[in-house]
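Homework help board

Subject: predicted structure for assignment chain

Our instructor gave us this sequence and asked us to write out the predicted structure in token form, then describe one feature. I got the tokens but I'm not sure how to describe them. Can anyone check?
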Amino acid sequence: MLLAANLTQAQTVDYPVNVARNSSQRSVTLTWDKSIDPSVVAYKVYYSYPGSTLKVLSLSNVNTIKVSSLTRNKTYTFYVTALTATQESVPSNSIMYATF
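My token output:
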């Protein structure tokens, strides 16, 4: 897993739950429940597809993201982590989306 240089992964940070998707032909909207942990300051969204390396898609404090202009005929995998000032949670459940 990719981590920012000054962050450590810890299971003490609540990870995002109920990650879900709503999709159309070449876009997907991901949503998740905000953490009840008051120390969570942001969420990091990761994605990959077969043959690619894991990439960070977004880092923000909102619990939704729309991903557009996805490449045709690829299966994308997304997951979310929660961040505090010093730690990153374990990954959420992963969401897969196949474009056509």
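Reply (TA_rk): Your tokens look well-formed. For the description, you could write something like this. The chain has a mean pLDDT of 89. That's the kind of observation they're looking for.
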